[in-house]
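Quick one, tokens below. Sequence please?
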């Protein structure tokens, strides 16, 4: 197979991220797609760069933003509240198969090294990208046209996950990300109170 054919096959796989829907909703009311999620993370990375306290290779950060969910073009996205331990294990296996498939087309280790680095979350670049990954989900919850879809999840799973003090200690790693997160949380609290008469403070423990 020629290089042009292999890369064209890869582009066809990557295109599927434009239709792979996530649970999160946008300000238009539509489900966010994975490609938009990755793009948002890249934009956020560029915006916060001047304020970061950790030195990062921004080229690598942008690579990880674009690559971290690429396996979902083949393995598909699974909402967090549906991910039992057994589903998580199978999801990881499916994503590894997807990585191998994509790597064979690219004929470089860029995809595998990026996926492995993100999963390990040990480098400053991977840790930052993980924060942006979670932050974008919070932003989408904040901007969603109708936020009632979140409270349909058992025990308001997503509010607890993204807006509880226990979980959000991860943002301590970068003060600017933490400040942005607090601003998002404040706006979400206001929306919950105004639109659904829910006191979100009960989630903060």
């Amino acid at each position: 197979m020629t290089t042009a054919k292999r890369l064209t096959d890869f582009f066809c796989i990557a295109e599927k991220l434009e239709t792979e829907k996530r649970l999160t909703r946008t300000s238009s009311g539509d489900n966010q797609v994975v490609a938009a999620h990755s793009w948002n993370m890249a934009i956020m990375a560029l915006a916060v760069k001047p304020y970061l306290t950790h030195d990062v290779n921004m080229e690598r950060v942008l690579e990880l933003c674009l690559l971290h969910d690429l396996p979902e073009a083949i393995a598909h996205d699974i909402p967090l509240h549906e991910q039992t331990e057994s589903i998580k294990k199978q999801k990881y296996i499916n994503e590894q198969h997807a990585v191998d498939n994509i790597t064979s087309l690219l004929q470089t280790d860029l995809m595998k090294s990026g996926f492995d680095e993100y999963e390990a979350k040990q480098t400053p670049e991977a840790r930052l990208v993980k924060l942006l990954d979670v932050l974008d989900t919070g932003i989408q919850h904040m901007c969603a046209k109708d936020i009632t879809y979140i409270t349909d999840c058992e025990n308001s799973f997503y509010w607890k996950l993204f807006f509880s003090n226990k979980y959000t200690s991860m943002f301590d790693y970068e003060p600017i990300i933490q400040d942005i997160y607090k601003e998002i949380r404040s706006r979400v609290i206001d929306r919950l109170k105004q639109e659904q008469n829910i006191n979100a403070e009960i989630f903060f423990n």
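The beta strands are 21-25, 31-33. The longest strand covers residues 21-25.
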